[in-house]
Amino acid sequence: MIGINRKLQALEKEGRYIKVGLIGAGQMGRGMIAQIENMKGMRVVVTADINEDNVINAYRHAGIERGNIVSTNNKEEASQAIELNKVVASTKALLVCALDEVDVVVDATGVPNIGAEIAWNAILNRKHIVMLNVEADVTVGPLLKRMADASGVVYTGSAGDEPGAIMELYDFADAIGFEVVALGKGKNNPLNVEANPDTAAKEAEEKGSSPKMLASFQDGTKTMVEMNAVANATGFVPEKPGMNGFEAGVADLPELFQLRDQGGRIGKKHVVEYINGIAPGVFAIVASDMEEVNAEMKYLKMGDGPNYVLYRPYHLTSLETPLSVARAYLDGQATIAPDAGHIAETAAVAKRDLEVGEYLDSIGGFTIYGTVMEASEAKDKGALPIGLVDKNVKMSRTVKKGEIITYQDVEQTVESTIWRLRKMQDHDWK
């Protein structure tokens, strides 16, 4: 199989390149633009953000001269600029989806409803869509993937994001015939379900990050959502709501993921899990019932078996996203997608006591955090998916701290795109 780098080089020699449309010029988007400017056969030709200055600064920091950046929300003007090998800065996300010149759309907004709207419109316009928005994916990804398949385009998560990195390990192990026992990631910080932008403010300032984003990592929501995406891609499930969150080092993982009656700590195989102590890595636990394979693994210093760990100690977030762009365009393949269907759900849980009439805020905020569970259990409970939570959702019943919020506990005051798509998904859209 020809490497992506050589395929991109071939495009460049032909005088062609993949035209990328990006939505969201925050930290992820800026890094992606800069990385792609170093690549052959690809360019971010248009970027949209609610703050146009963010786009211009992103392009300027990637080495693009101001005179080659055209600011416009007009489709014809944007098309003309791209034809002249200039790049476009816009404040209109849907312009990116509508431009004929764009081959692949990337959503780097991080907002579930906006991500759902972007993906929907990209697919309607027959564009490949790369999601750096796992929250939207776990909420309506199964529907969006079916739409993309029917439209002949690729719906995919991103390389470099932890679910994508885990999926690459899974695909490798599965392709060469290993049984994959478990899939997981390390958690960067101790679980604190009460974390909010105020408690995260000091550390966020020191790291130069958003307090809200940091809180979404600290309260576990991001970890739950990421492993939810892996579950929907592979059919693996969390062993229990919220997973176990074991403490372990990499060397401990093979024994830890043996069944309890064999001295391990799990009750069944084919699970998703997070581990405190191995961040920022991702892992796959694999096994084989072939004597020769086990002998070879021992010779290769992979351990004594019966389980072995494949561990990747890094993931380069949006810097790897171009690989997913290239796979979609060149090979028609997804890095990670919900191929197994709606396997798991990340349910909204009350971060504090919530009273009738209160409005919820958002992921990483003051009112809710997420916990992952099997989709069938979430359905039985009537659990509200975390991706449906926004400022238009009002409490209609009192919910105590630590309780799962259900559909019956809330009232939606304004129906958003992601709510409409979720209704379609829940009603077995075909």
In short:
It comes from Marinococcus halophilus. This protein has helices spanning 4-13, 27-37, 52-61, 75-83, 93-98, 112-124, 134-151, 162-175, 201-207, 211-218, 221-234, 253-256, 291-299, 321-331, 375-381, 417-426; strands at residues 18-23, 42-48, 69-71, 87-90, 104-107, 128-131, 155-157, 179-187, 237-238, 246-247, 271-276, 282-287, 307-312, 344-350, 368-374, 393-395, 410-412.
Overall description:
The chain has 430 residues and is an alpha/beta fold. The protein folds into three domains: 4-160 and 318-331, Rossmann fold (3-Layer(aba) Sandwich), CATH 3.40.50; 162-317, no CATH class; 344-426, Type Iii Antifreeze Protein Isoform Hplc 12, CATH 3.90.1210. The protein has 16 helices and 17 strands. The strands form four sheets. The chain has a seven-stranded parallel sheet with strand order 3-4-2-1-5-6-7, with helices on both faces. β3, α4 and β4 form a beta-alpha-beta unit. The protein is globular and about 65 Å long. The two termini are 35 Å apart. The mean pLDDT is 96. This is Oxidoreductase DRL-like catalytic domain-containing protein. InterPro entries: DRL_cat (IPR048423), NAD(P)-bd_dom_sf (IPR036291). It comes from Marinococcus halophilus. Residues 160-321 form the Oxidoreductase DRL-like catalytic domain.
